[in-house]
Amino acid sequence: MNIITLGLITTALLLIITGLYMLLRTNNMIRIIIAIEVLMKAVTLLLAFSGYMSGNYNLVQTFIITMIVIEVIVAVVAAGIAVSVYRNKGNMDVRNLNNLKG
Question: Looking at the whole model, is its pTM more than 0.70?
Answer without folding.
Answer: yes
